[in-house]
Amino acid sequence: MRKLKNEELGRLQVTEFKDAPKTPVVLILDNVRSLHNVGSVFRSADAFRVEKIYLCGITATPPHKDIRKTALGATESVAWAYAKETGSLLDTLRGTHQIWAVEQTQGSVSLDDFQPEAGKPYAFVLGHEVKGVAQEVIDKCQGVVEIPQLGTKHSLNISVAAGVVLWDFWVKTSGKKTSREPGTKPSTE
Questions:
Q1: CA 106 vs CA 103, 144, 148: distances in Å
Q2: Which residues of the chain have pLDDT under 50?
Q3: Start-to-end C-alpha separation, the chain
Q4: Do residues 128 and 71 make contact, with C-beta atoms less than 8 angstroms apart?
Q5: What is the pLDDT, as a whole number, of residue 118?
Q6: Is the domain covering 6-174 a CATH 2.60.40.10 domain?
């Protein structure tokens, strides 16, 4: 095996990314305080070609040097918008998306049991690093998905949680194990 060079990865250019079909999912960051987390979520959103990221409440928005530091250009490829109130945004998205919080709650669905319907758009809400997704936001969601954890900590970093949920959603809805052969350009069909 030989490590591939960047030019061998067949990555999309920003304009190609914007025109390419998207995974039918949006991410909603509910009062996320860490700019590095915001940037990392942008990178994961780019990797899975999500439709959009909504940055809500105190969540910082691009351009910002600390977001740019971890996003590595993904703020240019991934569509995003700011919404002051997460709850109002969910009211707007309710007609077009299945809305699920990523949180630990009574009655949550374990991620391994979560079965999204292929082709239907979803929205996943990720919350504040310490307080999680606000209860009033959870109350507006159609469900809550929980990532199983086996260690001593009770939570994952939100950027890690976003990556895990996006990977799981993509695998379950695309029917594929990988999006392309290594070293080839991803399909835009």
A1: 10, 9, 14
A2: 179, 188
A3: 29
A4: no
A5: 87
A6: no
Chain-centroid distance, C-alpha 179: 17
- Amino acid in position 101: A
Distances (CA, A) of 99 to 2, 17, 77, 136, 184: 42, 25, 23, 14, 34
Q: What is the C-alpha R_g of the chain?
A: 16
Structure tokens at 59: 């969540």
φ and ψ of 41, to 5 deg:
-65, -40
Residue 60 class from Cβ within 10 Å (0-12 exposed, 13-18 middle, 19+ buried)? middle
pLDDT score at 154 = 85
Compute the distance between CA of residue 80 and CA of residue 73 in angstroms, rounded to an integer.
Answer: 13
* Burial of 152 (C-beta count, 10 Å sphere; 0-12/13-18/19+): exposed
Distance CA 2, CA 187 (A): 23
